[in-house]
Amino acid sequence: MLKRFFFTLLLFSFLSACASPVPEPATTTVTASTPEQLTRQDWWREAVFYEIFVRSYYDTNDDGIGDFNGITQKLDYLESLGVNAIWLMPINPSPSYHGYDVTNYYNVNHEYGTMDDFKNLLAEAHKRDIRIIIDLVLNHTSSQHPWFKNANSDPNSQYRDYYVWSETGKSGQWHAGNQGYYFGLFWGGMPDLNYNNPAVTADMLKVTDFWLNEIGIDGFRVDAAKHLIEDGEKIENTPATHAWFKEFYTAYKAQNPEAYTIGEVYGAGSSVIKSYTGDQLDHIFNFEMSSGFMNSANGGANSGITSAFKFAAQDMPNFNFATFLTNHDQTRSMSVFYGNIDKAKVASFLMLTSPGTPFIYYGEEIGMQGQKPDEDIRLPMQWSNSANAGFSTHLPWRAPNKDYTTTNVEEQLQDSNSLLNHYQTLIQLRKEHPALQTGSATLIETNNPAVFALLRSSENENILVVVNLSNSPISDYQLELKESTLPNGTITSTSLFKTAQAQTLEITSGTFSGYKPIDELPLPNISL
Fold it and tell me: Which residue in the list 223, 236, 342, 365 is annotated as catalytic?
């Protein structure tokens, strides 16, 4: 039998503005964004994103492959979860199952449905104040794209210079074509585009204009952003890549000022994120924060998350980046935790109470598992314990994980202590408190490596986050704020969880020390 993981998840309000009641998880409701929020040009700072692999989400035409109509049918579920933005992995036509080798930038994958199906999904999502962004694969096309087929067959083709060619194969990243060798960083089926050619840029800006203005999406996730333009042996984050994205930023903002772009810069820490953010891309995924959440939840020590916060605060004190636990290229978080739901709850708590815009990978909210190969971290969504996990009445494109009979949405909706209800509760809490969305973040010394504490502050509220990361109750801890950030006086702290009554807090010179909200950080229930 799995040993319970002891943890404490406490949220304390220092100002009365924070003390509003939060619904019980089983009856959590979601308040839609107001029209004013939806028209703000930085709407993504207050968003909670949900990443979907269309092929694996929900099948409505019984062919074993997920489709746009399937996502449309599940919008009520996503709304109840509390997310207000969706990232769709590639939806363009492609010869591969994953779609990261595009053959037509102006159409959708016929296996997922028609363009009208996609437009209907977009319209229904917007009715619910849910934004949709799609993967934009800029770095390369498919080797079956008409541009490449033309360029590969005729050295005098107008598309020859759309790609990077050499008379000799210089390394394993060069691949033999019909007329010379072409550069394909990832593999021969994905020839890199040549952005030193202005015609390529012009064509790709036509693509962004099409999706933003003719179709009406809300933005893009830019795949492999750091690899766009190589400089000799340097193949990532080159000056030319940064220069190109500066022009790209100006161009797509002119097409739609509210459009959002987030770049994949694999492994990015805060210093790299800073180099792209603000004048090139709106956001970059913070991999350091991801590792911090996962390592501290898994290892029971605050060193991972504390280190990540210190780097972020040094380079990007506004915390203007995206956070996540794991994504479609990584072992799923629940597999990292070997099925330990309590560790999964701790990790999600750390992410959803931290600064930055959170991205949730589909199925993460119910604890889906999966390890490499990639197909097995992109398995069908587990909706119920019925055949094929309730994903399809047809044999799925890939069999769902065998644990679907016990790990699924239907079962967890009935369990107030489930991981799913935990996510619903935290997302609702985040949406109700501006300090948890865009507020500043200040690390609190805990004097115990197994306790993590963070002060989130906005104009009208201050919220203290305290987490027991260990596998036992903790009484040997003391919280200390060294920076002067709070008003002086005695504050009556109100617990937003029904776990304990918090002790009053004495603030002197804007700081405090020796504070213990409760004498012992025990194994409480997350319920509110």
Answer: 223
User: Is the separation of the CB atoms in 464 and 353 below 8 Å?
Assistant: no
Long-range pairs, 90-96, Cβ under 8 A, ≥24: 90/134, 90/135, 90/137, 90/223, 91/54, 91/118, 91/134, 91/135, 92/137, 94/142, 95/142, 95/144, 95/189, 96/142, 96/189
288 an active-site residue?
no
Question: What tokens were used for 96?
Answer: 């591969």
Per-residue model confidence (pLDDT) at position 21: 28
pLDDT tens digits for 425-459?
A: 999 999 988 999 999 999 999 999 999 999 998 88
Per residue in 356-405, pLDDT (tens digit) is 999 999 999 999 999 999 999 999 999 999 999 999 999 999 999 999 99
- Of the candidates 264, 342, 365, 461, the residue annotated as catalytic is 264
pTM: 0.91
264 included as an active-site residue: yes
Look-up of token digits 């197994």 = 450
166: which 2 tokens? 């050499």
Which amino acid belongs to residue 317? P
Q: Around 348, how many Cα atoms within 13 Å sit in the side-chain half-sphere? A: 31
The pairing of strands 357-361 and 49-52 is parallel
Token pair listed for 503: 């002790």
